[in-house]
Write a structure and sequence with these properties.
By secondary structure, the chain is α/β, with parallel strands linked by helices. The chain is 48% helix and 19% strand. It has 6 helices and 5 strands, in the order αβαβαβαββαα. It has a 5-stranded mixed β-sheet, with helices on both faces. A hairpin with a 2-residue loop joins strand 4 and strand 5. It is globular, with a radius of gyration of 14 Å. The relative contact order is 0.20.
Length: 143
């Protein structure tokens, strides 16, 4: 019989792959988050991934769509809420002033939060609108 962890890992993997396929680096431990954020010069987009329907139907497709923009973040990272709990908690320490939200997008510049797109902005919008929220942030903060 398959363990719960092994089953969940199998179920979640395609949700992880959807982001790594378009260039995102998974951060699965607090140490990986700390190292990535501390050394990320320029801009970094952090996707807080999730198993929820709005992550599958809106957030992941919208962020993939946003990668077509001329200006893009220098670094692409993702943490998985509910799966890599410690890594997600560590990433959220950088999202000062924002409550935990998944899925969500955080844009950092030199390790400091410059803008945040929260779940309520994702679940109440369509893919194109969400992509536009992202690309207008890229246009404003990315070189």
């Amino acid at each position: 019989m398959m363990s719960y962890e092994a089953y969940m890992s199998q179920v979640i993997q395609p949700m992880r792959d959807e982001l790594t396929r378009v260039g995102f680096q998974e951060l699965r431990t607090p140490e990986e988050v700390e190292e990535a954020f501390a050394n990320a010069k320029g801009t970094a987009l952090v996707v807080v991934n999730s198993v929820c329907g709005c992550a599958a139907g809106l957030a992941r497709p919208a962020v993939a769509h946003s990668m077509r923009n001329e200006k893009k973040p220098d670094h692409l990272y993702t943490v998985f809420a509910g799966q890599d709990k410690e890594a997600t908690a560590k990433a959220r320490e950088y999202f000062e002033g924002y409550p935990p939200s998944s899925p969500s997008f955080a844009l950092l510049k030199d390790g400091k939060l410059v803008t945040m797109i929260e779940r309520h902005q994702i679940e109440n919008n369509d893919l194109v609108t969400i992509s536009r929220l992202l690309t207008s942030a890229y246009d404003q903060y990315c070189s």
